[in-house]
Amino acid sequence: MKARIHVFYKEGVFDPQGNTVAQSLQRLGFNQVQGVRIGKVIDLELTSKTGDEARRDLQKMCDKLLVNPVIESFKFEVHE
Question: Chain centroid to CA 10: how far?
Answer without folding.
Answer: 10
